[in-house]
Each structure stands twice: as structure tokens, then as C-alpha cells.
């Protein structure tokens, strides 16, 4: 009963509480705002849908960007791999090139003079020799006897006369110079074609070099391109000469490079005998504000000294002496009253250490030193050793050997061709260098007089090969096979070979002229020789014959 009564009371209370009259009046507007709520829900739904579209677009853009980045990364990675492969091939190619270059240099050092060991090595006759009729031994012998020997008989008497006069002139030069301030002049030496007995073209000109040294207490400190310091490629073959005091080395005392302070004194040098560049160095023929000997200053001093010396002894002679060429300061000419004249070159040089290699100020009548870098750069001449080498080899050759005859004939042909077509870069010194290489490469018996024709062909073949390769190496520089009897300085034997044709590599116009002159000389060879040869029956004339 109580439980039933409780349930009835709970039901009544629940009905009263949930009756609509108990809700506030504002709650009665809910049914009226239902459409507004639905509209807002639709707007919200639309904004959410737009937001969804925007997010989907951003996601799509991000995916596209990611794919582009991945593709770019793949391309970069592929290019890196390709670059690595390319770098690997480049490095491999460089290694192969360096190995080939090292092999070439080793082969060159061992074999660059071995040009006459095999006949095939000399068989380089190219298009230039096609159709060229080479004179035979009979024609060459007649030409040599009529043209060469007939015009060179007076050379010995001329050399003797020039040397005697030069000695007298230099003795007078020493007497007019101040022994305490001027350069000390030594005895002259004869070099070149006149003293190697192969000059054929007139006028005959004697080349004399005159070593000189500075007055005490000074000395010359010489430095060459192969002495260790770096020289540019265009300065190979040159050197510099520094004027130093005898009690210091070429680098100079440390007091010349460091401030010692007012209360410190160098124990070797005082301020009185300091060798800092100044007027004292200029008086010693150095370039302005340096200690390096100036070739132009030396030549000016030498010209003035020679003029003074001649004024002192001119009364003893019945001829006049004058400077013949403005571009060759040492070129002198003796003029007799009869109208005849004798030309000779007297060129000052500086001895390299205790050898017979000399720094020469100017090359008369030559393009060897035409492009000297500066007046403080001196070209090195090996003329004394070249003369000694020819004399040494001549002692081992058969009697009346044809080596000098070959050079004389080739020099004559080249000179005649230059008189027709003008000078070229090819010089007589190049021709002599060819002979020196072949003298070292060929056995002694190959220079017998009856082999004149074959050896002349060898010289032309060798020269054509050098012109084709643009390489003609100096005979002494880099040549480890120089006879020990000559006493040649080892520093030059160990140096890199010096290519005498290097200046023509970049100057194509001069190179083209040189090649054209050589080809023209070959084509005109028979005509030039026959012009000075007595008539010989045609049956004796042959083409090129291999030995």
C-alpha cells in the first residue's frame, strides 16, 4: 500500500512538472525560428563544403609540388651521376695524356738525336720532294769545286788580318779605359762560320766576341733560365747578369733587406760600400735603379771605348774604321783607299761562370735574339763549344770528309733562294744545327767524300721533318750525349731541350714563309747548281737515289 501510494504521488508530480504552462513564454518561439536555424545550417554546410574544396586543392597542389621536387631531385641526382662519370673520364683522359707526355719526354731524351740509326727514320720525303731532280755526285762535285772552293780561298788570310787588327784595337781600348772604374776587356775569340770553315757567301764577315768583367771589387753573378728560378717560356735561352761585390753573393747581404736600426752596424758592410741601386750601379752599366747589367748600356759604352781606341792608333794604319750598321752596334768596317773593304763584328760578351758559354749582348745579322724580353735579358751563345765539337768530330772522320761540304752547299742554296724570294725565318744557324745532330747520329764512315750526295739528302730530309713538326732542338741544351772531352756544363745538359722553332708556332706568317722558302729552294736546286757547274752529259744526272 505505501509503495503504491508513492508511485501514484510520483506520477502526479511528474505530470505537473512537464505541463506546458510551466515553460517561459520565450520558449514558445522555437517553432517560429526553425527556418532561420535551417538556413544557418545550410550556410554553415556550404562554407564547410567550400573549405573542403580549398583544402583538397591545397593538398593537390602540395602533391604536385612534391612530385615536381622529387622529379627535380631525380634529375639533379642523375646529372650528378653523369658529372661523376664525366669527371671520371676526364681524369682518366688526363692521366693517359700525362703518361703519353712522360713517355714522349723520356723517348725524346733518349732518342731525339738518334735520327740516323735506320734508313727508315730518314725516309720522310713528302710532297715537297716529288718531281725534284736531285743532282748526282758528279754534278755536286763539279759545283763544289767551281763555286765553293774558288771563292773561299782567301778566308784564312782575311781571318789573320782581322784578328791582328782586333788585338791591336783592344789593346788600345784598355789603355784609354780607367782601370779602376771601367770594365776590364779580355782577348777576343773568333766564332761562327768563318772560323768553322763553312761560310760561302760574300761579303765574308768575321765574328769576334770580347769577354769583359767589372772592375774590382765587383763581380758578375749570372742566372740562367735553367738555374732553378721560374722563367716564362718566351725567356728560355736567356739569363740575367747581376753586378755584386766580390764579398757577397747574388742574393745580397741581409743588411740590404732588413732595417738594422740606428744603433746597429753590419760587420761585413758599412754605409760607405753599400751596393744599393743608385748612381754607382748606373756607372757600372746597370739598368736604372737595379743591379742588373743592361745590354744597351754595355753597347753604348763599348762603341765609345772603341772610338777612343781607334783615335789613338789610327795614325798607324792606312785605312779608315767605321761602324757599318746602326742595328748592330758591334759591326765594324775597314775601308781601304783602293775602295775595298773588310767587315767584321766585335761583340762584348760575359762569361758564364768558368765555362765557355757566354751571355751575348746582340746577335749581328741574326734573328735568333730578335725579340729579347728586355735589355737586362741576355741570350746565351754556345758558339765556342759548337766550334770545338766540329773540330773534335772532324778528327774521327775519313780524310776529306763531306760534312763541311754539305753545310756549305746547303748554305749557298738557302742564301741564293733568299736573294730571290726575300729572307725568311730559316737561318744558317738552323742549317748548322741540323748538321750537328747528324754528325752525332751518323757513323764516321758515312761522311766519306764519295757520300756527299747521300748526306746532303739526309740534311734536307731532316730539315723537312723538323719544319713539318715545328721542332728543331738546340744541339747542346738538353743533350746528354755531348762528348765529355768538351767539358760542357752539366746544368745545360740536364735542362729541358730548347726548340729553336718555338717562336714560329704562334707566328704562322713567318712559319709559312719559312716553309715556302724551303720548298722553293728544293724546286730551284738543280737550276741554282747548274748555273755554276760546267756542262755534264745528261746521262750522268739522276733523280733521288737512296743509299
Q: What would you note in describing this structure?
A:
Keywords: Cell membrane, Coiled coil, Glycoprotein, Membrane, Nucleus, Signal, Transmembrane, Transmembrane helix. It holds the Pfam family Mab-21_C. The chain is α+β, with helices and mostly antiparallel strands and 547 residues long. It is built from 15 helices and 10 strands. It has helices at residues 2-17, 34-111, 119-122, 137-148, 155-176, 193-196, 279-283, 295-313, 383-394, 403-421, 428-441, 452-469, 490-493, 503-506, 508-531; strands spanning 184-185, 189-191, 205-213, 218-224, 238-245, 319-323, 331-336, 341-351, 358-360, 378-381. Helix 5 crosses helix 8 and helix 11 packs across helix 12.
Q: How are the SSEs placed, and which strands pair?
A:
Layout: H1 2-17, H2 34-111, H3 119-122, H4 137-148, H5 155-176, E1 184-185, E2 189-191, H6 193-196, E3 205-213, E4 218-224, E5 238-245, H7 279-283, H8 295-313, E6 319-323, E7 331-336, E8 341-351, E9 358-360, E10 378-381, H9 383-394, H10 403-421, H11 428-441, H12 452-469, H13 490-493, H14 503-506, H15 508-531
Keywords: Cell membrane, Coiled coil, Glycoprotein, Membrane, Nucleus, Signal, Transmembrane, Transmembrane helix
Subcellular location: Cell membrane; Nucleus outer membrane
GO cellular component, one term: plasma membrane
Amino acid at each position: 500500500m505505501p509503495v503504491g501510494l508513492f508511485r501514484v504521488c510520483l506520477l502526479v508530480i511528474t505530470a505537473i512538472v512537464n505541463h506546458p504552462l510551466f515553460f517561459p513564454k520565450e520558449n514558445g518561439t522555437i517553432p517560429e525560428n526553425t527556418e532561420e536555424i535551417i538556413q544557418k545550417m545550410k550556410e554553415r554546410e556550404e562554407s564547410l563544403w567550400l573549405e573542403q574544396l580549398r583544402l583538397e586543392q591545397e593538398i593537390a597542389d602540395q602533391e604536385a609540388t612534391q612530385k615536381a621536387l622529387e622529379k627535380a631531385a631525380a634529375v639533379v641526382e642523375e646529372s650528378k651521376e653523369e658529372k661523376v662519370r664525366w669527371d671520371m673520364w676526364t681524369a682518366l683522359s688526363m692521366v693517359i695524356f700525362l703518361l703519353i707526355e712522360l713517355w714522349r719526354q723520356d723517348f725524346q731524351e733518349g732518342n731525339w738525336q738518334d735520327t740516323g740509326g735506320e734508313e727508315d727514320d730518314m725516309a720522310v720525303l713528302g710532297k715537297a720532294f716529288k718531281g725534284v731532280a736531285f743532282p748526282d755526285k758528279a754534278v755536286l762535285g763539279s759545283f763544289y769545286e767551281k763555286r765553293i772552293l774558288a771563292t773561299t780561298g782567301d778566308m784564312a788570310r782575311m781571318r789573320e788580318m782581322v784578328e791582328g787588327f782586333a788585338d791591336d784595337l783592344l789593346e788600345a781600348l784598355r789603355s784609354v779605359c780607367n782601370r779602376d772604374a771601367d770594365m776590364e776587356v779580355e782577348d777576343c775569340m773568333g766564332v761562327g762560320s768563318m772560323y768553322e770553315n763553312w761560310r760561302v757567301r760574300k761579303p765574308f764577315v768575321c765574328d769576334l766576341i770580347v769577354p769583359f768583367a767589372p772592375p774590382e771589387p765587383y763581380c758578375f753573378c749570372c742566372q740562367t733560365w735553367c738555374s732553378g728560378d721560374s722563367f716564362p717560356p718566351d725567356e728560355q735561352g736567356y739569363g740575367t747578369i747581376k753586378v755584386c761585390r766580390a764579398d757577397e753573393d747574388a742574393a745580397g747581404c741581409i743588411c740590404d733587406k732588413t732595417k738594422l736600426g740606428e744603433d746597429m752596424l753590419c760587420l761585413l758592410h758599412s754605409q760607405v760600400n753599400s751596393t744599393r741601386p743608385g748612381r754607382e750601379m748606373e756607372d757600372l752599366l746597370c739598368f736604372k735603379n737595379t743591379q742588373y747589367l743592361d745590354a744597351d748600356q754595355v753597347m753604348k759604352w763599348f762603341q765609345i771605348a772603341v772610338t777612343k781606341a781607334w783615335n789613338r792608333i789610327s795614325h798607324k794604319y792606312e785605312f779608315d774604321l767605321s761602324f757599318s750598321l746602326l742595328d748592330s752596334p758591334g759591326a765594324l768596317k775597314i775601308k781601304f783607299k783602293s775602295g775595298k773593304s773588310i767587315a767584321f763584328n766585335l761583340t762584348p760578351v760575359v762569361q758564364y761562370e768558368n765555362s765557355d758559354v757566354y751571355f751575348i749582348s746582340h746577335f749581328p745579322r741574326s734573328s735568333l735574339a730578335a725579340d729579347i724580353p728586355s735589355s737586362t735579358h741576355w741570350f746565351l751563345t754556345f758558339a765556342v763549344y759548337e766550334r770545338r765539337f766540329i773540330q773534335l768530330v772532324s778528327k774521327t772522320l775519313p780524310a776529306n770528309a763531306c760534312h763541311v761540304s754539305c753545310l756549305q752547299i746547303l748554305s749557298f742554296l738557302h742564301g741564293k733562294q733568299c736573294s730571290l724570294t726575300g729572307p725568311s725565318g730559316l737561318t744558317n744557324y738552323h742549317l748548322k744545327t741540323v748538321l750537328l745532330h747528324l754528325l752525332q747520329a751518323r757513323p764516321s764512315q758515312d761522311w766519306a767524300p764519295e757520300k756527299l750526295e747521300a748526306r746532303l739528302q739526309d740534311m734536307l730530309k731532316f730539315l723537312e721533318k723538323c719544319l713539318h713538326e715545328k721542332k728543331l732542338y738546340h744541339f747542346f741544351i738538353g743533350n746528354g750525349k755531348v762528348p765529355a772531352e768538351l767539358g760542357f756544363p752539366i746544368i745545360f745538359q740536364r735542362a729541358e731541350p730548347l726548340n729553336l722553332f718555338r717562336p714560329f708556332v704562334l707566328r704562322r706568317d713567318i712559319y709559312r714563309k719559312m716553309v715556302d722558302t724551303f720548298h722553293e729552294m728544293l724546286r730551284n736546286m738543280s737550276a741554282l747548281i747548274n748555273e755554276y757547274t760546267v756542262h755534264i752529259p745528261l746521262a750522268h744526272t739522276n733523280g733521288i737515289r737512296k743509299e
